[in-house]
Amino acid sequence: MKNSKSLSLILGLSACIGSVSAQVSPSHPYTAPHPIYGSFSVTDSNYYNQKQLAQHNEFMVGNHDYPGKPKDMWEIGIKGGMFTIGGDVDAVLATPGFGAHIRKSLGHTLSLRLEYMYGIAKGQNWQPSTGYQYAGYANPWFYRYTKNSVLPGGNVWDPIRYPGVYYNYKTHVQELSLQLLANIHNIRFYKAQTGVTLYALAGLGVSTWKGRVDAMHEVRGDAESAAYDYSTINSSGVYANRKDILKQLKDLQNGEYDTPIERDPSRPYSDMFRGNIAPSVSGGLGLAFRLSPRINLAIEDRVIYNGSDLLDGQRWDEKGTLSPDKDLMNYLTVGLNFNIGSKSKE
Fold first, then answer.
1. In sequence order, which residues have a C-beta less than 8 Å from that of residue 327 and are 6 or more positions away?
2. What is the pLDDT of residues 102-139, one digit of tens each?
């Protein structure tokens, strides 16, 4: 009996404490994470439009679990970082990418972002390849190395032998995408703002790309291709020696990227952009660091896929079969984001 009374007393006290903690008082406002990294007082009715005031009032008297959606400022942002392509040719790191966006919140957790991206990716293999011999004249290496390739000094080799070449490329990519962002920290609505927000994103867009390869030591037109003599490269094929091989290639090649990459026959060609064009999907994660009520710094990584295997201009392996995997783009950035709008929305 005594235990039963004690249990009842404990339960009663717990209920009282719970009811007190659930009360919301305008004189004791607290903050909750804003969908665009700010904070606001959920007890202040000035932060809610007429449509959301009903839910706000219900929340204030304990008849609703969550406050209404607050008024939101727009966000604009700029970013820059590293853009690379993962494909059939080894990627060169530290190639640039940059972009800008505009963003609008949909509530406590979700927001929409319209983003433009421009990236320049490069690639360089350290091992020689002859798979281009199966590609036909659409392939830049086949096109250059099946002509009378004039070497320095006037020597000409037999093009039938298909010499080993070192694939490389330089590709320019543009993308416009609409993305849905989920503020993961906003799952805990009523914790005071920590200043750091983790978010995930997924998007749909359209991408266009064009690229070139560095295949000639001298541009002499179509009559003579003046292609590189890669037989001068001392290639051991040993991974540990790749840095020395890449240095030899850098000394040999002039970096002019003289010949267009192979167009993707499965994707439309755009005369406006002078390259292929295709729909794209993307996904990624980011961390936003709140610097002030209106400014945050974001570190973000986004992977982009458009279904093409010719972003790097290559799709043939050494056995003359098409490579099974499509190319992927990776966009790692640091950006500054600015909230814009009336001060009453801060």
1. 85, 86, 87, 88, 308, 309, 310, 311, 312
2. 999 887 788 999 999 999 999 999 999 999 999 888 99
**C-alpha to C-alpha distance for 46 and 56, rounded to whole angstroms:** 11
Question: Strand runs (DSSP E) across 60-152, as ranges?
Answer: 74-86, 91-92, 96-105, 110-124
What is the SS3 assignment for 55?
Answer: helix
The contacts of residue 265 (CB under 8 Å, 6+ apart) are 138
Angle at 295 between CA 292 and CA 298, to 5 degrees: 115
pTM of the model: 0.78
Taking only the tens place, the pLDDT of each residue in 7-64 is 454 444 444 434 434 444 444 444 444 444 344 555 656 666 666 777 767 777 777 7
Other beta carbons within 10 Å of 307: 14
The answer to whether 121 and 112 have CB atoms below 8 angstroms apart is no
Distance CA 127, CA 112 (A): 44
